[in-house]
Specification:
CATH topology of the largest domain: Creatine Amidinohydrolase
Number of helices: 11
CATH class of the largest domain: Alpha Beta
Bound molecules: glycine, manganese (II) ion
Helix content: 25-40%
Strand order of the largest sheet: 4-3-2-1-5-6
Radius of gyration: 24 Å
Distance between the termini: 20 Å
Shape: globular
CATH architecture of the largest domain: Alpha-Beta Complex
Strand content: 5-15%
Structural class: alpha+beta
Mean pLDDT: 97
Order of helices and strands: HEHEEEEEHHHEEEEEHHHHEEHHEEE
CATH superfamily of the largest domain: Creatinase/methionine aminopeptidase superfamily
């Protein structure tokens, strides 16, 4: 599978180079920077252009030198250093596509100053070669547009990242049912997925009760709720396999017969239905709008709002309860790049004025991978603002008070777009 992937990647790079009138490219894995006034580094995050080509995800200071019709050279950083363990010299199918050259220090890096017509792709604060064109727009836009089409190799990695994350989700949910703290649920996730904090594609969101209303809630309370206070659990957590991410959210009610549990089921069904609509040729903006209409129906069914769905959408009322986009591209980055491009030249299709946080505005194509993550939240800040405005009249405030202690609902799956029937990697 990797070899076919490499073929696709090479074709895209060749065409990107041609468009940008370049002869070759140096792709840099990246490096870490230290905290201000400190000798402690931020976590390393590999350049996605680098890991798109080679599944080396945790090694800084590596460089791939790629030229069309030549075997690519991979300069692998293996410092003579007793502080850290060395990156292993890669073996196997994928490594055969590269001439692998070990570099142990800065002096081992070849002198690239004589290279004509080459680009440098990656962090530029370590690039000492003025002759290289840094991250040229034409090349980047072309590659970012085409990176949205995933190869079988990429889809398989994302699928495996789903399988692994679901083990973690299950372990965390079991802890929630036992009344454990947010932090304990998080640790159960880490243990089940065998990830450390640096390997997670994003910081886990592990929220109980009203904390579920904070979209990117980050604290992880260490205390256990009193049993009579346990209400709800929202966990948004993924894994990485070969640098590819999963991004999954589940919401659970402690009392399975509560109104909140019924609302979760309604959002769950609607989420599955929207996921099925993610087929080639569909505008993601349209899917997002449909999701708002469907969620407005749910809010009306549960008597939270007292107007029809189109009114809820058009007045911005539905944004009070769903203030984020329906989803985003997923792959080497959690929010994979290129979601706002309208073509390979890098023209932009901005999100609609009413939905500025929508990260994906493209018309879907076969083998796009994306998330579908509708939600309903009870967020004080937005509710107060609504109360003070015209749309406040459409909200049944006593029902809001009923649901507020539960925080919110988000259900998030990872979907592969196909011609006629999408594939759900999370429920498969
Ligand atoms: N976990 C971040 C997101 O769902 O986009
Ligand atoms: Mn997401
Ligand atoms: Mn998520």
């Amino acid at each position: 599978m990797y070899n076919n992937h490499y073929k696709y990647v090479s074709e895209i790079i060749n065409q990107g180079l041609e468009k940008a009138n370049l002869d070759g490219v140096l792709i840099y894995s990246g490096h870490v920077n230290n905290y201000f006034l400190d000798d402690m580094p931020y976590a390393f995050a590999c350049n996605p252009h680098f890991k798109w080509m080679a599944p080396i995800t945790e090694t800084p200071h590596c460089i791939i030198h790629y030229k069309p019709n030549e075997k690519a050279k991979l300069y692998l950083y293996q410092p003579k250093d007793y502080w850290h363990s060395l990156a292993k010299t890669p073996e196997g199918e994928w490594a055969e596509n590269f001439e692998i050259i070990s570099i142990t220090c800065k002096e081992d890096v070849p002198d690239f100053s004589g290279l004509q017509n080459h680009a440098w792709i990656g962090q530029i604060d370590s690039c000492e070669f003025d002759n290289l064109k840094h991250n040229p727009r034409t090349y980047m836009d072309y590659v970012h547009w085409h990176r949205a089409i995933k190869t079988d190799y990429e889809i398989e990695n994302i699928r495996q990242a789903n399988v692994l994350a679901l083990k973690g989700h299950n372990a965390a949910y079991q802890c929630f049912k036992k009344g454990y703290s947010e932090f304990e649920c998080h640790m159960a996730y880490m243990l089940a997925t065998k990830h450390n904090e640096y390997q997670l594609p994003y910081g886990n969101i592990v929220a109980q009760n009203e904390n579920g209303a904070v979209l990117h809630y980050q604290h992880m309370q260490r205390f256990r709720q009193k049993p009579e206070n346990i209400k709800s659990f929202l966990i948004d957590a993924g894994c990485q396999v070969n640098g590819y991410a999963s991004d999954i959210t589940r919401t659970h009610a402690y009392d399975e017969n509560s109104e909140f549990a019924k609302m979760i089921n309604a959002v769950d069904s609607m989420q599955i239905a929207i996921g099925k609509k993610a087929v080639a040729g569909t505008s993601y903006i349209d899917l997002h709008t449909q999701a708002h209409l469907m969620l407005s129906e749910i809010l009306s069914d549960f008597d939270v709002i007292n107007c029809d769905a189109p009114t809820a959408h058009d007045t911005g009322l539905s944004n009070v309860f769903l203030p984020h986009g329906l989803g985003h591209y997923l792959g080497l980055q959690v929010h994979d790049i290129g979601g706002h491009q309208s073509d390979e030249e890098g023209n932009i299709l901005s999100p609609p004025e009413l939905h500025p946080f929508l990260r994906l505005t493209r018309t879907l194509e076969e083998n796009n991978v994306l998330t579908i993550e509708p939600g309903i939240y009870f967020i004080d800040m937005l509710l107060e603002k609504a109360k003070a405005s015209d749309i406040g009249q459409y909200i049944n405030w006593s029902r809001v008070a009923d649901f507020k202690p539960y925080g919110g609902i988000r259900i998030e799956d990872n979907i592969v777009v196909k011609k006629t029937k999408s594939v759900n990697l999370t429920r498969g």
